[in-house]
Amino acid sequence: MPEPQADVSAVEEPTRDSTSDELARSLGSAWQRFSGQRPKSTNVEIEKDVVRCVIEESTTASGADEDGSDDASHDSRRLDSDATAAVVRVTGRRVIALIPKHDEKAQTYTQRFILDRPRQRL
Question: What pTM was computed for the model?
Fold first, then answer.
């Protein structure tokens, strides 16, 4: 009997990991379109109603911030829009809020997506 229980937990965990991996790839691609380079690392954590993504920027500076504040904010909105679309596609849930944070000193970009709760049938 212990073997089937081990198999059940082994089946559940890769599903969550594969979702995180798929999101990490999608968000890394969105970052590459935004900055022109692949991120150094992309870490995705999925909780009940929250998806948190931390992108570690490459050591070379991107040209997105050098073009001017209007272009940079436009590009940032595009990144947020692409990232939100990826989260919706992978999770199958609507994003009701996005909280982006850029830490230039640590060279990280964090996005916290708040997901809509799934509808419950009565």
Answer: 0.73
